[in-house]
Amino acid sequence: MFKGLSADELQAREDDIFLNFMSRKWALEAAGVTPTHDKLFCLWKWQLDEIEAAKAALLKDAA
After folding, report:
1. Which of 58, 5, 15, 56 has its CA nearest to residue 23?
2. CA dihedral angle for residue 17, residue 23, residue 25, residue 27, rounded to 10 degrees
3. Mean pLDDT of the chain
């Protein structure tokens, strides 16, 4: 999903997703809902994992 993006683009997307992820987490916790029961929270968590994998692949290719 994030392969082929530059390191700067990956970081920008990660920053945006992380802010949404944490805002959603705090809102869900304030409402007493377990974040792992929320599909949007899980989607953002998955995207963060995908970005980390893409960043690792960039570092591996650069080495």
Report:
1. 15
2. -150
3. 91
CA-to-CA distance for 3 and 37, rounded, in angstroms?
Answer: 28
Q: What is the pTM of this model?
A: 0.83
38 touches 46 (CB < 8 A): no
Look at residue 4 in the predicted model and tell me its pLDDT.
80
- 5, 15, 33, 49 from 36: Cα distances, Å: 28, 21, 9, 15
Q: How far is CA 55 from CA 18, 20, 21, 31, 44, in A?
A: 15, 20, 19, 34, 16
End-to-end CA distance of the chain: 22
